[in-house]
C-alpha cells in the first residue's frame, strides 16, 4: 500500500479505543489501544516483527499507550545526559504529534518512524523540513532555524572542545542559509531545501545512515 | 545509563535525521550489527521456578552474569535451559532489574542473603533505585554494626595482644574496665571513692550534737573537721591521679581535655585545690563556701560508670528546643496569671501579693498543683482567678509532657535519620557524578575503539589474520555512542569530561598569554588532548603549549608496531594503550592538510568550522 505521500499533513484518523476508568472522582486513567497489527503493517513499511518490537518498547515506557511531552522529553534526555535536550525534544514532539492534540499515540509514533526510516529520500527530507518549520507555514525563517540550532547545540552541554561560544549556533545558521537560500529572500522554502539537499553528497549519504536501525 | 530506555534507542537514532541537513561535515559510520540477533526467549530455571525473558533484555547489562557469556556455564543441555541453584524469591528482583532498569530491595529479605545473590549475579548494589536505597543502606549499616559488635566482644574477650604500647594499654584499661583485672579494680575503687566523697559532702552538714562548752549545735563537718579533711584529701588525691593518668593515656590529649567528662573531673577537684591555696580569710571565705557547692559535681562522675546517665544527658541535649518551648509557654502562662492575680489582690489588705514578681511564686506553686499555702488569694476575684490558674495549670503542665516524651523519641530517631541522610547524600551525589563520568569515559573509550578497531582491522588485514576485536560492547552501547558522535559532528564540537574541559580552559588562557600561534594542525593537539589527557591529566595538557609548535612542524611518523599475537588484540583497550601512550606522539594514518589556516589560539569557531569542513583529518589515537 502506498505510504503517506509527501504531504503528510493528511491525518489518517486512526480509530482509537479509549477506555477510561473513572472511580468516584479519582483521576480517570485513559488507556489507548492501537489498532490491530495488520492495519499498522499496511499503513507503515514495517514488518510484523518490527512492529512487535517497537510496540513492546513503547508500551514498556508508556504503559498508558500515549506519550505526552513530559515523558517524551524525559526519555530523550536519558540519551543526552551531558546537555539539555528538552528544546529539541519539544520540536521533535511537535513533529511527531501530527494531530496536534498534545500526545503521541503509537500510531503517530510508528508512522513517523516509518517515514524517517523506510521512506524515500524525498519523504525524509520533507519530514526534516517539517521539523524545522516550526509554525508549519511552508518556509523556514531565520528565527526558526536559530531556535532549532540553539536546541541542537544545547544538547552538547557545557563541557565541549572547543569551548562553546555563544555565537556558534548563529554562525551555523548563517552558513546554513548561505547554502540553502538560493534566492536570498531570507527564508528557505521546501523547493530550495529539497534541491540543495539532493545536490549535497554528505547529506544524501547521511540520510541513509539510519536505515537499519530497527 | 540509558539502558532502561534501550527500547527507545531506535527512535532517538531516527530523530537524528533532524541534524543531517544542518550538519556540514560527514557523519561517522554507524556500527555494524555483526550479529543480527534473533530475539529469542531464554528460559531461566532457578531452583525449579522457571523464568522466561527475551535474550535482549538480559544483554542490556553485559557486565553481569546473565548478560555475558558467563551464563553459558549454567546451561543445561538436556532441558535446554539455564539452571541456577539459587533462591528464586530474590532472583525475581534481579530479573526485574533487567526488565525495568531499576533494582529494588525487598524489605522482608535478609540483607546478607540479598547481598550474596547480588554478588553472585554480578550486580553492584549501588544501582539500587532511590525508592529502596535508604532502606538498603540502613539495613546494611545495622548489619555491619552488629557484626562489629560481635567482633568487639570477641576481641575484648581475647587475651590482650602483646604489642600494645603502655599508653594504649592504659587507655584501653580505662575505657573498657573488664579487659583486665587491674582495670576492673581501678574502676571499682574510683566508683567507691566517688560514693564516699559524695556521702561525706552530705554528712558533714548534718548537725552532730553540741560541743560541751557551746549551746549551739554544730555540724559534723565542723566537729570532726580533721577527719573530713583527711577523707576529702584522700578522695581528691585519687581523683587527681585518675585524671592525670587518663590525660597521659589519651590518644588525643586536646580532644580529651575538651570532652565533657574531663571538664566534670576538673570541676570536681578544683574546689579543694583552690581551698588549699586560699587563706582562711573572712572576705574570701564566702566565695570559698560557694565553691564547695561544686563538689557535688562529683556525682556526675558516676556517668562513666552508668550508661543510662549518658543516654539521659544526650537525649536532654537533643530535645533542648522542645524543653525550651515548654519553658517558654510556662513562662507566658505564669506572667499572665501573676499579673491577673496581682491586680485582683491589689485591693485586699495585708496582701502577700506585693508585686507581680512576688505573684510569680504563687502562680508557679499553684500551676504545678503544689499548693504550699504560703500565699493565698483573699478577694473573691482573686479566688476565682486562682482556681482558673490551678485548673489551667493542670493542662499546661500535663499536656506538653507526653508531647515532650514522644518528642524525645521522635527527635532522637529523626536526628539519627537526618544524619544518615546527610552522610548518604554526599556519597550519592558522588555516585551520580561518578556514573556520569563513567558514561563520558565510556564514550571517549568508544571513540578510541572506533578508530583503534579500524586501524586494527587494517593492520590485521595486512597481517592476514582474522580480526578478533576487543570484547565487543553491546550493540546498544555502540549505537548510543555512534549517536553521540553524530551530534558532535553536527555541531563541530566534541564532548569532553569536566577535568579536561577545565584543563583546556587553563591551557587556552596560558596560550593567550604567551601569544603563540597555533598552526593549521589545530586538530592534532586536540587529538592529543582528547586521547592523552585522560591518561596524564595535568601533564600533557600543560606541556602541550610548549611542545605544540615543535611537534607540529615535524610530524613524527612512527611505525605502527605490527601486532602479531592474538592475545594483545584480545586485550582490552585499557591494557594496551597505556603501554604505548607514554608520550604524546601522533601517528597519523591519513592526514590531509588543507592550506595552512592560521587560527588564533582561542580558536574562532567559524574558522575552525571551515578548517574542519575543508580537511579530512582522521584523528588516530596515539599508539
Automatic annotation (TrEMBL), chain A:
Pfam families: EF-hand_7 (PF13499), EF-hand_8 (PF13833). One of its GO terms (cellular component) is voltage-gated potassium channel complex. GO terms for biological process: regulation of potassium ion transmembrane transport. InterPro entries: EF-hand-dom_pair (IPR011992), EF_Hand_1_Ca_BS (IPR018247), EF_hand_dom (IPR002048), Recoverin (IPR028846). GO terms for molecular function: calcium ion binding; potassium channel regulator activity. CDD domains: EFh. It comes from the Eukaryota. Residues 84-119, 120-155, 168-203 form the EF-hand domain. Belongs to the recoverin family. PANTHER family: CALCIUM BINDING PROTEINS, KV CHANNEL-INTERACTING PROTEIN 2. May be involved in the calcium-dependent regulation of rhodopsin phosphorylation. Binds three calcium ions. This is Potassium voltage-gated channel interacting protein 2.
From TrEMBL, chain B:
It is found in: Membrane. GO terms for molecular function: A-type (transient outward) potassium channel activity. Residues 40-139 form the BTB domain. It comes from the Eukaryota. Residues 1-16 form the signal peptide. Coiled coil: none annotated. Its main location: membrane. The keyword Transmembrane applies. GO terms for cellular component: dendritic spine; neuronal cell body; postsynaptic membrane; voltage-gated potassium channel complex. Keywords: Ion channel, Ion transport, Membrane, Potassium, Potassium channel, Potassium transport, Signal, Transmembrane, Transmembrane helix, Transport, Voltage-gated channel. The keyword Zinc-finger does not apply. Component of heteromultimeric potassium channels. Identified in potassium channel complexes containing KCND1, KCND2, KCND3, KCNIP1, KCNIP2, KCNIP3, KCNIP4, DPP6 and DPP10. Belongs to the potassium channel family. D (Shal) (TC 1.A.1.2) subfamily. Kv4.1/KCND1 sub-subfamily. This is A-type voltage-gated potassium channel KCND1.
